[in-house]
Amino acid sequence: MWDKYFKYFAFFYKNIGNKMFLMVGLNFLVGVLDGFGLVMFLPLLQYAEDSDMASSTEMGDLNFLLEGFEFVGVEITIYSVLGVLLVFFLLKGLVKYIETNYRSIVQNEFITSIRLEAVNHLANYNYKAFSKTDQGWIINTLTGEIGKISSASNSYFLMLQSIIMILVYSVLAFLANPQFSILVIIGGISSNFVFNYFNKKTLIASRNITREGNAFQGYLSQKVTFFKYLKATGSMDVFSSKIKQKLLNINKNNIKIGHYFAILNSLREPLVMLVVVLVILISVGFLDLSMGLIILSLLFFYRALTFLMSFQTYYNSLLTSGGALENLDLYFQKFTEGRDGLNGGVKFTSFDSQIAIESLCFSYDKKNVLENVTLSIPKNSSIAFVGESGSGKTTLTNLICGLMPYEKGTIKIDGIELSNFDIVSYQKRIGYITQEPVIFSDTFFNNVTFWAVKNEHNLLKFWNAVEKANIASYIKECENLEDTDLGDSGSMLSGGQKQRVSIARELFKSVDILIMDEATSALDSETEKVIQENIESLKGEYTLIVIAHRLSTIKNLDQVALFSKGRIIGIDNFQKLVSASPKFMEMINLQSVTENHKNI
């Protein structure tokens, strides 16, 4: 039993630390002050029967409070007792304010730190692990699940407060009347079995909500991504029904949790009163206990039992988010295990000589993707990687970018092993243009400059970059110029314009290495020609690595590396590789790059 409670303590303590003990201390002080205030009611009740306040008052081991009056030389009267009672409750109110305010601060700091840690884990996650991870799960964890953690933290802190109050009132009740206290404790423990049954049911429902929520986020993301396809093929209703089913499953489990919570909430006070009534009957009928001590103990135990029921309610509420807590633990564990493996200490400042790759090997899910690849790419030269799908060209590019650690062989930049570099400083010198252009829902300026400060220097750099990318004339035609909003993911732009904006972004960064990954394969012939001119104009200014599907775009590059089954089977300039490689010739024929390849 303690394991299930302790695992939540371990989770919160890991993220909050010793602040939890200060909250416990404040709660303890609130309980003690409240208890001492309640003790003062007994002399007042006795005064109602006997106006002689100086007479002995039965308060068990708590008589030290009345003895304190004599110690400080204060006469025990109704006024002095009322005054002390008021002081205790005023102090309790002050401490309660400090505790509640501090708990709010700690809780908000905790949620903020959790969100930041989750985002940082994603930023440091290696690409290989990311490619095998369900993106719906990631999105659901970072949004919905962390939102539930906020509710869970509030429930846990209130649950912790209830435990402290139960202990304080139980000890005070025991000091006043041990026999009565033992009976109430037995009754309280017995009522706990009722709550445990519904708590287990709640945790199961919570886990189901988390699982269905992950699936829902995944399907929703795919619906947005593949909206055009689903719409054009009349498949939207089928796919929407899958999303609808996930939502119905989530709703079903939420209703279950609400049902269990309603039962527990409605049972709380009746169970308290049932325990109290039975204990009073036993105390008066069989133990012949003093009614004054019974009333005092009853005050304490009514409070203790109320907090016991509150504890069960808060614990049930915590279990409502139990699936989210387990999910977040799994998230942190998985993302810690999948941290980037390449991250040395050498700061990368500039690319001066060459990229030297020797005997490089890489496997994915125990399948060899690259085998003994050796290659040299001089600074400011241009090279194309070509080959059938799955031949290893994209994997090699990913390794050059430092996206994944390699198993055997070396990649050296200016003679220094890639793993020795601070990988982020190296990657900042890389420009990457993909088949599907990355366009953010923002302005031209922010898309190209990546939200750089809009000053005179950056504005000049912006216009230089868009001129080189052949998109400046279009921007100048827009009413708001560089401040024109591009719509959701660049919906206001054509495919070619998106590609040119993405090229401009990489040029703005003043990179050394520019990678174009199938950058023209999704474009029409006219737009492809424009992008081809862009590539031609960049030769000699950057080290160009082009992954090419359309071979017409690479005819004038310095080198072409032909890949097949994870190996480089030919490397030369375009014309010489045509003559030397029948496989490359076959690829050209299939694409009809020229009307007559014999004239190449």
Could you say which structural class the secondary elements and strand pairing correspond to?
Answer: alpha/beta
Distance between the termini: 79 Å
Query: Low-confidence runs (pLDDT<50, min 5 residues)?
Result: 53-57, 593-600
Instruction: Determine Rg (CA atoms, Å).
Output: 36 Å
Our count of domains comes out at 3
As for the CATH topology of the largest domain, it is: ABC transporter transmembrane region fold
Shape: elongated
**Helix fraction?**
55-70%
Indicate the proportion of strand residues: 5-15%
The CATH architecture designation of the largest domain is Up-down Bundle
CATH class of the largest domain: Mainly Alpha
Please summarize the sheet with the most strands: 6 strands, mixed
CATH superfamily of the largest domain: ABC transporter type 1, transmembrane domain
Q: Strand sequence of the main sheet, in spatial order?
A: 6-7-8-3-9-10
Instruction: Tell me the number of strands.
Output: 10
Q: What number is the mean pLDDT?
A: 76
